[in-house]
Every structure is written in structure tokens, then in C-alpha cells.
Design brief:
Number of helices: 11
Strand content: 5-15%
Radius of gyration: 19 Å
Strand order of the largest sheet: 1-2-4-3-5-6-7-8
Shape: globular
Largest sheet: 8 strands, mixed
Distance between the termini: 46 Å
CATH superfamily: Alpha/Beta hydrolase fold, catalytic domain
Number of domains: 1
Number of strands: 8
CATH class: Alpha Beta
CATH topology: Rossmann fold
Order of helices and strands: HEEEHEHEHEHHHHHEHEH
Helix content: 25-40%
Length: 361
């Protein structure tokens, strides 16, 4: 239980087999290949694969347009499968729940560099194009519009990195959604402590001699150990950790266990690219161009987006139709990972869906 919880704190989770999901509706997997994908850097990849899964079926209006599509965007190091874990799926996708899969067509893509989508570890290693959040959102938009044939999404909900992607979506494709629900991020450039821990992960990988410029024969374990420790702290939940590990011995044992498990699931090149992708993220100058209603939720015990900065309260005023909710820290919150524990905020989601009817098209 402790190990699986921590994987979700920072988004480092593997895709879950549908057979292990109990009551969750059947999951359909798919792949979308984009030919000659042009990155913001100018690089071109002859074939970019975007893996995705779906729940439910599309509903269409009298003109044949899909009206019930919901896009869920995962965090750094994660994939769409993180939304199939019980703390999310069991609260949202069942009968009568906010994203009831008998009513909504739920889309779970793996972002570029993540999950079963194209990534450095597929073979290109350090020759893989240096993607950024704009590239990731562009690929998601093409998946939705070109491959799935959706003109307008009923909702985009994103967690952590996906939260930041939601803001990018709102600015880049302002007519493509009825509502936005970003969870656990700030719509400003990555700076201060948030940039520092990311830079530490990047430096640990690049400065490990075993990394060998990305051409390692075996994973650079010293670098990955440092990265795993930093990810643990970044995703930590202080009240939960204090209660769960009340002694030095229990805390030390957890660090040992968690670090080894995390290292076993990491690829150094993939992680380097994932953490580096936020380098030029900064939606702040264009927040006023977002047309969709925005329900933005952070938690008070989030190490990555600490409420003491006061950024959210200031920036929400720049949104045309924005509301910010700060979840108080408690024994029920999970630090940065509160974004994936849907029981904490699903009533807010219900309200958002009830007050943002699909646009007339």
C-alpha cells in the first residue's frame, strides 16, 4: 500500500492491466502514428507513436459530432494507466459517478516520452528530439482531432505535468474544450525550488560517468539513486509520512525499499527528457486568452507547488472564468499526489460539469 501510494505522489507509475481493475469498465487500447512530426526545436521524427486507452463510447449529436469526450492528462514519469488505479477510477468511472463511463468517452493518452508512446529508450536514446510541453500538447491535439475525430472536448482534466498541459491546451486551442480542470500545478515558469530539484535530477544523470552521454550499457545507478531520492521528497506528504513512519527505523526502511523499487522502474534517458521538458513552460503571459471555465485545484501540503508563494491566488484573477480551490492539508491528503486521490475533490468536479453545459455548435 505504501509503495503504490508513493508512485502516484510524483506520477511514476506503470500502466495497469485492465484485468486487475475489478469494477472499472473495459479499457480499449490504441496507437496513433504521426508521420514526420515537427518538434518546436526544429527536429523532425519520421514516425511519432502516441499510445492511448479509452473507456466508454462516443456519443454524437444530430450532426455527427462527438459531445461526451473527456481527456485525462498524466504527470511527469507516469502514463494514462495511472488513472485506472482504484483511488481515481473507483471514485469517478462507475455508474452514477462524475465521469461515469456509460455516459462519457474517456481518453487516456501516454504523453510523448512516456508509457508506450515514442520515447528515448525505444532506441534513439540521446538522439531522440528534445521535446517540450508544446510538443506534447500538439501531439495530444492531433490524437484527439485527427485520429479520434473530436472537435470539442467536454472536459480536459490534468494532474501535475498534465495540469500544466491543461493550461497550455487552454491557450493554444481555446475553442477545443467546454471546461478545464488542472490539478497540482502553477501557470508560471518553472523557477525557484521547483526548478532546483529538477535541475538536481538532470545534473545527477548528466554527471554520472556511467551515463556516457546517453549511450550506457547499463543504467547509471548512482544517478538514478539520487533522482529517486529527490522524487520521493518532491512527492512527499508530511502528515501522512509522519504518521506512517513514526520512528527512525521505519523511515529508514521505507527509504531503502522505495529507492530500490523506483530505480528498478527508471530509464535514465527517459527520465532526463521527462524532467527537462518543462524548461520553457510559461503560460502566465496569456492566461487571459483562455476562454473555457477553469476549476484549478492544489493542495496545501504540496512540496512542488507550495501555497506560501501566493501565486495561485494572484494568477486566478487573470482567468476570464477561473476559480481556484486549495485543499487543506490533513491526514487524508497526499501531498503533491492529492491530485490522483479523487475522493478529495470529486464534488468539485461534479459542480464543474453541472455548471458548464456542452457548447452549442
Amino acid at each position: 500500500m505504501r509503495a503504490s501510494m508513493l508512485l502516484l505522489l510524483i506520477g511514476l507509475c506503470g500502466c495497469v492491466s485492465p484485468a486487475a481493475l475489478g469494477g472499472t469498465p473495459p479499457v480499449q487500447d490504441g496507437d496513433f502514428t504521426i508521420r514526420d512530426f515537427h518538434f518546436a526545436s526544429g527536429a523532425v521524427l519520421p514516425e511519432l507513436r502516441l499510445h492511448y486507452a479509452t473507456l466508454g463510447r462516443p456519443s454524437r449529436d444530430a450532426r455527427g459530432r462527438i459531445t461526451n469526450a473527456v481527456l485525462l492528462l498524466h504527470g511527469t514519469g507516469g502514463d494514462g494507466g495511472q488513472f485506472l488505479r482504484p483511488q481515481f477510477a473507483d471514485e469517478l468511472f462507475g455508474p452514477g459517478q462524475p465521469l461515469d463511463a456509460s455516459r462519457y468517452y474517456v481518453i487516456l493518452p501516454d504523453g510523448i516520452g512516456h508509457g508506450r508512446s515514442s520515447k528515448p529508450s525505444d532506441g534513439l536514446r540521446a538522439k531522440f528530439p528534445a521535446y517540450n510541453y508544446a510538443d506534447m500538447v500538439e501531439a495530444q491535439h492531433r490524437l484527439v482531432s485527427e485520429h479520434l475525430g473530436i472537435e470539442r472536448l467536454r472536459l480536459i482534466l490534468g494532474t501535475s505535468m498534465g495540469c500544466m498541459h491543461a493550461f497550455v491546451w487552454g491557450e493554444t486551442f481555446p475553442h477545443s474544450m467546454d471546461a478545464l480542470m488542472p490539478l497540482a500545478c502553477l501557470p508560471v515558469a518553472i523557477a525557484g525550488r521547483n526548478r532546483m530539484w529538477r535541475r538536481m535530477v538532470i545534473d545527477a544523470i548528466r554527471e554520472d560517468p556511467d551515463w556516457d552521454g546517453g549511450n550506457y550499457a547499463a543504467e547509471p545507478r548512482r544517478a538514478l539513486r539520487t533522482a529517486a531520492d529527490l522524487l520521493l521528497i518532491a512527492g512527499s506528504a508530511p502528515l501522512y509520512f509522519q504518521a506512517a513512519f513514526p520512528t527512525r527505523e521505519s523511515a529508514d526502511a521505507f527509504v531503502t525499499e522505495r529507492t530500490e523499487q523506483t530505480i528498478g522502474g527508471l530509464d535514465a534517458n527517459d527520465l532526463l527528457y521527462q524532467v527537462s521538458a518543462s524548461r520553457d513552460y510559461d503560460p502566465a503571459p496569456r492566461l487571459g486568452t483562455i476562454e473555457a471555465p477553469v476549476l484549478w485545484i492544489n493542495s496545501a501540503d504540496d512540496f512542488i507547488n507550495p501555497p506560501e508563494l501566493g501565486i495561485a491566488e494572484a494568477r486566478v484573477r487573470e482567468l476570464r472564468h477561473g476559480r481556484f480551490v486549495l485543499l487543506p492539508a490533513s491526514e487524508h491528503t497526499h501531498g503533491h499526489g492529492s491530485h490522483t486521490w479523487a475522493a478529495l475533490w470529486k464534488s468539485e468536479l461534479e459542480s464543474l460539469l453541472a455548471t458548464t453545459a456542452p457548447a452549442v455548435r
